[in-house]
Structure formats: C-alpha cells, structure tokens
Design brief:
With about 300 residues, this protein is of the alpha/beta class. It contains 11 helices and 11 strands. The longest helix is centred in the first third of the chain and has 23 residues, at about 10-30. The structure holds guanine.
Length: about 300
C-alpha cells in the first residue's frame, strides 16, 4: 500500500528557529537591535500555560528579549487593557501576544484591537487581517504562516492553479490560511459546518487544510489520492484502549483520521509533530519582522 510522505514539523521548525536566531544575532551586531516579545497569559488554563512557557523559552533561546506577564483569572478588562497599552509604549517590545482563549468576562476582541497593529505578532488585529486580504504587507497569523511554509517545502514555491480546500473558517486559522492560498494563486474553497456534502468537496482538493477542531473528522476516503494534507487540529481525546482510557489517559489527535489518510495522501503533517511546532517558530519570525519594520530596517 502506498504511504504518504510525512511532513516533519520538528525538522522544519528547528530550521526556521535557527534562521531566526541567526537574524537576531545579526540585528544585534549590525543595528544594536534586540527584538523583544511580550506574552500575556490571563488565568490558569493548562494548555495555555504549556504554550506560553514554550513561547518564552524559544524567544530567549533565539536571543530575543522576552517578557511573560501572568495575570490572575479575575483580572479586570481595564487592567488587561492598561497592560497592553503599557506594552504598546515599551520600546524594548516589538511583539505582543495575548494568549487565547481569555477567561470568561474578558472581551477578546477589545483586547486584540488595543494592541498596536505594528506589534500584533499574532496577526489578529483587524488592520493586519485587512492588509492581508488586500495583499499589503501585514503581520500574518503564525499557524497559517506555518502551514504555507510546510506546503511550499513539500510542493515547491509554485502553487498556482492548485485546488485548495480549507475546512474551517476561524479568524485564527481558516480565514487567513485561505487568504494566503489565494495570494499563492490557488483556487480556494472554504468549507465549514454548513457545507453540503463535505466529503465530496474535500475530494476535489490537491491541498487540504483541516482546521475544524473536531478529532479525526476527515476520513481517508474524503482525500484525493496524492493530495497534500495539512492537519491543524490539536484535539485531546481518551485512548481507544479501554484500560488506558479508564486510567484517564489521553492522547493528541488531529482533525484528520491519520492512519486512513496515510494510505491515500501524497504527503501529510502528523499530530503531534506537525503544524503545531511551526506556530512558535513563526511567532519568533513575526517578532523579527515587526522589530525590523518598527526600526525601519528593510
Ligand atoms: N491560542 C491557541 N493558539 C493561539 C494563537 O495562535 N495565538 C493566541 N494568541 N492564542 C492562541
């Protein structure tokens, strides 16, 4: 049985982090500029704590200035906005990321819109989303950026004319990845929970991006033979082994039924070990991009 090429996020992310570290060293040496990233975590969501720690560690390892602000879940909207404004004004900080989701009672949209668009390394501010949609220079959300790097590494730089189907329409992934595919001259379909005959739509895809957040929803027979599959899902589910499940053990799976997909796809990203690892590397890259733009370095 044919077996898809596995697109290794670990190797790709390591390479990108090394490139970013080299660029940070050069910016320091030639321009006296040290890119700085501030990450804000409100509350104690366990998954968010893991992500935030990883962002802090990797930014330090790349030679950046790094700040992590941990605030209690009861933090008021006014206090959170005051911190964002303080970071907007801090010349040592070039990138600001407020980890989502925020605890109940806090207005995520208002927080994101308060971030200076020039420091919005998550690419979530309407100014950056609008600039991306209009093909202007923008800060681009990290996970979609990671998806495009993995696609180009697999298929080459010329994606023109390929049929791309994005399953999911979130602001964080679905919409921006569709914009990036369109900018690369793909023919793009955005599918979602109300799409009719989703399997048939997926089967048209040369490039299938799964970003729905539903464990193993996309089955092997939804995939066109030879297609490139980018699985953005990170879902925690109980083990299928009843003994392990009874012990409360869980594992990570993507939005794609991986084993089935391996037999059909031409190439596929695994979960874990795929797109997820690229997100932090792209965050570091965005911080360097923001620092250079703020400092007026081309
Ligand atoms: N939570 C999960 N993914 C992300 C992300 O890319 N950015 C932010 N800010 N929060 C997240």
């Amino acid at each position: 049985m044919p077996q898809a090429q596995i697109i290794d996020g670990k190797v790709t992310a390591e390479r990108l982090r090394a490139e970013v570290a080299a660029e940070v060293a050069e910016l320091k040496a030639r321009h006296g500029l040290q890119p700085g990233l501030a990450v804000v975590l409100v509350g104690e969501d366990p998954a968010s704590q893991v992500y935030v720690r990883s962002k802090g560690e990797h930014s330090l390892a790349a030679g950046m200035h790094s700040q992590t602000h941990r605030l209690p879940a009861e933090t008021s909207q006014a206090d959170l906005l005051a911190l964002v404004r303080q970071l907007n004004a801090d010349p040592k900080i070039h990138g600001i990321l407020v980890q989502l989701p925020l605890p109940k009672g806090l207005d995520e949209k208002a927080v994101i819109e308060t971030i200076d668009p020039a420091k919005d390394v998550d690419g979530l501010h309407v100014v950056n989303a609008g600039r991306l949609a209009q093909g202007l220079p923008a800060l681009i959300p990290c996970t979609p950026l990671g998806c495009m790097i993995m696609l180009r590494q697999t298929l080459g730089d010329d994606l023109a004319g390929k049929r791309a189907v994005v399953v999911g329409r979130s602001v964080l992934v679905g919409k921006p990845v569709a914009q990036l595919l369109l900018a690369a001259d793909c023919t793009v379909t955005i599918a979602h929970s109300r799409t009719r005959d989703l399997p048939a739509v997926c089967r048209e895809a040369d490039i299938l991006v799964a970003a729905v957040g539903r464990p193993q929803m996309i089955k092997g027979d939804w995939i066109k033979p030879g297609a490139t599959v980018i699985d953005v899902g990170i879902n925690r589910v109980p083990f299928s082994d009843p003994v392990k499940a009874a012990q409360g053990k869980t594992k990570l799976v993507g939005d794609v039924a991986y084993k089935e997909a391996l037999a059909v796809a031409g190439a596929i990203t695994p979960v874990p070990g795929g797109v997820g690892l690229m997100t932090v590397a792209c965050l570091l890259q965005n911080t360097v991009t923001a620092a250079k733009r703020i400092a007026g370095i081309a």
